[in-house]
Amino acid sequence: RRTGEALRAFHTAIRSSPGNSRNPAMKEQAQGTMLKVLTSFKSSEIEQAVNSLDRNGVDLLMKYIYKGFEKPTENSSAILLQWHEKALAVGGLGSIVRVLTARKTV
Amino acid sequence: MAYHSFLLEPISCHAWNKDRTQIALCPNNHEVHIYRKDGAKWNKIHELKEHNGQVTGIDWAPESNRLVTCGTDRNAYVWTLKGSVWKPTLVILRINRAARCVKWSPKENKFAVGSGSRLISICYFEQENDWWVCKHIKKPIRSTVLSLDWHPNNVLLAAGSCDFKCRIFSAYIKEVEERPSPTPWGSKMPFGELMFESSNSCGWVHSICFSASGSRVAWVSHDSTLCLADASKKMAVASLCTETLPLLAVTFITESSLVAAGHDCCPMLFTYEESQGTLTFGGKLDVPKQSSQRGLTARERFQNLDKKASSDTANATLDTLHKNSISQISVLTGGKDKCSQFCTTGMDGGMSIWDVKSLESVLKDLKIK
């Protein structure tokens, strides 16, 4: 499995996030997809993936990370914590604040 | 930077007199204390006791030397110095919630009060009755008004609210002034007219500020964003998602540079690039003292790992000047277009004066446009 695949899947998931959707089924599907993509990464690949995002992308990623924390699966929290560390380094505390204040959740 | 610790509690709000020799502040209670600078010391010279609730806003009119204060007791008082005593005059605001902020207009013939009653009280003096009266701006405000700033034309007023919006209203009072001439924000300005309303933020708007010319307005919200609306670009809004904790206060120091501060306890520089319509972070303005880097013992490393899941050696104590959130910034000298000194007060009970020239020489990468 090549690194490129995971990275492409990641960007696709970020791009096709249903931003303004109120449809709970759609949002849940997007969350599930994103979680799958995030857990498929090797620890060493995470930093590169985070650095490839723009500011809005980092904010969106942080929202999905916290969503993932809300509904933990086996081993998901461990990898999510690693994503959290890298996303925090780029987005700062501001990106976490925006998870808390966002009106439209992912 | 000059830092003075006034209190062990938060300074709720402050205001300076015209020549910056006296500062009026609320020491987190129902009073206003005025301190005068005598050499290197600050001496308390007055205690203003009239409010029945915490004083949430103070403004000192530079020319007429009058103070206006507002508080959680739903009242505002205009204070006049008679000899060596400050005499209060009650102003009926007709609100049923706490007043949160107050600002004199540039000509000092009106003042505006924002409150939890979801409206703004515009107060002016009625000569014939020898009494302050007020008019309300209500629509379309949906929550508490936290911050206010006047446009230099004495008519337009910017208001930041807990309903996440920044708005500009006309506070034109025909009894005290002439019809205003058109501005980039619009030409028709009847009282209460909404000239601009923002749509971006997802957080309470803590602080709002017009640039010196009045053609730009900037605000900071609780979702850690800084926004700026430029009337000369059809009111286009530039916004910046910061990496910091929410900012609580913002001011222009030139027409394109802003200083903001908040829960990170440190003032920061932001620059507005007009050609691209963008806001960028220009750096922290607090230069931490170089604390001696001593190594961690094995025990401390283990404790760090246990508590914070990280083994990095960054210390957990604040090395900023202010040891708690900064809640207010005021321009001391130079005005909002060529500020040379500004002042911050915060929840640590301290007041700090920042010198722009010194900052520029110490922080080599600082670019103030």
Automatic annotation (TrEMBL), chain A:
Organism, scientific name: Aegithalos caudatus
An example Gene Ontology CC term for this record: Arp2/3 protein complex
Listed InterPro entries: ARPC5 (IPR006789), ARPC5_sf (IPR036743)
Pfam family, one: P16-Arc
UniProt keyword list: Cytoplasm, Cytoskeleton
Compositionally biased intervals (Polar residues): 14-23
UniProt name for this protein: Actin-related protein 2/3 complex subunit 5
Localization of this protein: Cytoplasm, Cytoskeleton
Chain segments carrying region Disordered: 1-26
Gene3D superfamilies, A to Z: Actin-related protein 2/3 complex subunit 5
Domain of life: Eukaryota
Biological process according to GO: Arp2/3 complex-mediated actin nucleation; regulation of actin filament polymerization
Function of the molecule: Functions as component of the Arp2/3 complex which is involved in regulation of actin polymerization and together with an activating nucleation-promoting factor (NPF) mediates the formation of branched actin networks. Arp2/3 complex plays a critical role in the control of cell morphogenesis via the modulation of cell polarity development.
Family statement drawn from the similarity comment of this UniProt entry: Belongs to the ARPC5 family.
UniProtKB/TrEMBL annotation, chain B:
Protein name per UniProt: ARC1B protein
Protein role: Component of the Arp2/3 complex, a multiprotein complex that mediates actin polymerization upon stimulation by nucleation-promoting factor (NPF). The Arp2/3 complex mediates the formation of branched actin networks in the cytoplasm, providing the force for cell motility. In addition to its role in the cytoplasmic cytoskeleton, the Arp2/3 complex also promotes actin polymerization in the nucleus, thereby regulating gene transcription and repair of damaged DNA.
InterPro entries for the chain: ARPC1, WD40/YVTN_repeat-like_dom_sf, WD40_repeat_dom_sf, WD40_rpt
WD repeat spans: 48-82
GO biological process: Arp2/3 complex-mediated actin nucleation
Keywords: Actin-binding, Cytoplasm, Cytoskeleton, Nucleus, Repeat, WD repeat
GO molecular function (one): actin filament binding
Subcellular localization: Cytoplasm, Cytoskeleton; Nucleus
Similarity section: Belongs to the WD repeat ARPC1 family.
Species this chain originates from: Aegithalos caudatus
Highest taxon of the lineage: Eukaryota
Cellular component annotations (GO), alphabetically ordered: Arp2/3 protein complex; nucleus
PANTHER family reported for this sequence: ACTIN-RELATED PROTEIN 2/3 COMPLEX SUBUNIT 1 (PTHR10709), ACTIN-RELATED PROTEIN 2_3 COMPLEX SUBUNIT 1B (PTHR10709:SF10)
